[in-house]
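#lab-general

N.A. 3:47 PM
ok so I finally got the sequence cleaned up, no stray characters, all 208 residues accounted for. can someone with queue access submit it? mine expired

B.Y. 3:52 PM
send it over

N.A. 3:53 PM
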Amino acid sequence: MKKILLLVVIFSLTACTTTPPHRFVANPAEKWEQRKAELSEINDWFLNGRVAIINGVESWHLSMEWQRHDDKYILDLVGPLGAGHAQLTGTNEGVVLVDSDKNYFYADSPDRLLQKVTGVRMPVKSLLYWMRGIADGNVKTDKKVLDAYGRLAELQQNGWHVRFKSYVYVGKHELPQKIFIDGVDLKVKIFIDEWNLKSKMFQSGKEN
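B.Y. 4:20 PM
back already:
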């Protein structure tokens, strides 16, 4: 019995050291301004995860791989998207979508293009900001709620209600791990399994 108790104590101590508890900050608003400035500088990243989209009685469960380098990004979505796969390659000027059959589609808005070709509605353009835990600076912010640590907890922009459910450390930064987004007759839940502040495909020269 003593050995079991000792193992429980050791395990508890190990858990505390591997995941240090947060400390409340004296001024969350001041901490947020510092955090926002640092996160806004992140323009090179890679992540993969999962997306659940509920649109009325319809729902999609997709795997996601997304990377960005400067003003260019590549978003791969795999799942029941008609053809089963969609790759968005975009810049500030526009976006190209390629499906599984190598059909090419072009538009100036990734949101409209994705919905038109696949039927999936998702705020891709604003997610380029929300994925970093900051507001989209191109649209009005109707509501912003910070947590006790100076991180973005809730956000309302352009008809979307965004909740940042959890964060994870990536190097010196805390970045979102779970993001829940509610719109008109639409729910989007994003779960990030891997964060990396380097864009793998762009740096390896494999981009399309």
